[in-house]
Design brief:
This protein has a single domain, classed as Aminopeptidase (3-Layer(aba) Sandwich). By secondary structure, it is of the alpha/beta class. Strand 2 and strand 3 form a beta hairpin. Helix 5 packs across helix 7. About 16% of the residues have low confidence.
Length: 301
Amino acid sequence: MKKNAIVIIVLIVILIGAGLYFMTRPTPDNVKVITDLATTTGGVPIQNNQIVKSTSTSVLGKSVQGRDITAYHYGTGTTELLFIGGIHGGYEWNTVLVAYQLMDYLKANPKVVPSNIKVTVIPVMNPDGLNKIVGTAGRFTEASVPRSADQTIPGRFNANNVDLGRNFDCDWQANAIWQNKSVSGGTAAFSEPESIAIKNYVESHKLAAVVTWYSAFGGVFASNCHSGVSTETNLITQKYSDASGYPASQSFDFYAITGDMVNWFAKKNIPAISVLLTNHTDTEWVKNQAGVEALLKFYTK
C-alpha cells in the first residue's frame, strides 16, 4: 500500500511539473500569434505557422439611449472595406439583416477575404431605431417585424427623432427632406452620437471603400459632394452593379438630400456607394453576395 501511494505521489509531481513547463515556456520563434484588435472572437490558421485572429469586434460608440454601435472585422489586411447597415434602424430593418448575412458568410468562409484585405461590418448604425420596431438592437428575425410598413416608420429616426441620414457634413441643413416629408437633420452636422461614432472611426482609419445599404428602390448609387464622382467610385459602382444586377446611377436625383452620409465619405475622398435594396422586406442576399465578392476581387492584390 505504501509503495502504491509513493508511486501515485511521484506521478502527480511529474504531471504538475510538465504542466508548468508548457505553460511558462516561450513561444517558438517560428510561430507568430497575430491579433488584429484587442477583442477577438475567432482564429483561422494559415500558412507559415502563423495563427491569425481574423475575426474581431470593436465598439465605436453609444447611441442616444446608450446602446453599443459595434463593428465586426474580418481579415487582417491593410486594405479596409467598410459595410454599413441599419442607418435608418427599424424602418430599413432588411439592411440590418443583409449585413448580418454578410457577417455569417465571412465567418463561415474566411478564405473569401483576401490576405491584403480587412472587411469591417457595422450591421446596426441606429440601434435605438431598430429596437423601437423589433424589440432588440441585436439579432432578430422577420417574425419580430410588424406586418404594416407604416408601423416601422418611427424606427427610421434615432431617439432624438433625428434622421441620421441627414446628419453628416455635406450640404447639411437642420430642416431636411425625406421623400415629401420634413425631417430633422439635427442641431448641427454630427450633432448625434451615432454620427459621431462613424465620423471618429472613418477619420481614424484609412478606408479603401465604403458600401452602405438602404431600402427601398433597387440600385447602386455613386457618391459625390460637389466635386464630381471620382474615378474609383465610378469603378466600384459599376463593379457592384454588374455583379449584382442592380442598375447603376451616378447620383440620387429623386429629391434633394442634405447631410447625406455617403456623400460625406466622398467629401473625405473615400470611394463610397449606396446600395438600395429593392423593397423593405427582402435582403436579396444572392445579389449582394455577388456585389461584395466583386469588390473583394477588385481590391485584391
